[in-house]
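Subject: isopentenyl-diphosphate Delta-isomerase

B.,
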Amino acid sequence: MGDTTADSAMDAVQRRLMFEDECILVDKNDCVVGHESKYNCHLMEKIESENLLHRAFSVFLFNSEYELLLQQRSATKVTFPLVWTNTCCSHPLYRESELIEENALGVRNAAQRKLLDELGRAGPVVSKA
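Prediction pasted inline below.
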């Protein structure tokens, strides 16, 4: 993702979010230790040399018939374009509402934000951690 080929493949919105969104950095015990841009969090050299770990989540949305809603990633995604994947995945951001530790409320808030953004609706998010 750090090379110019991958960078040039990003659309304007994706590029802006990669540099503006601040992921939550954590240690191996999931304790918050700081924040860093989404772009830097995904650079292999940073991950390997600085041991950058960050929070992420994955949502699997089932209907009443136990069918899983999948979605196909956009052709403009830098990683895994056009691949079928889970309902929604992303990162809680370094902001007050998504840093709440109790009952994983911060991650739940982030999941609601992304479900609304990607699917146009927010639903109940049940954590099975």
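The two ends are 30 Å apart (CA to CA).

T.
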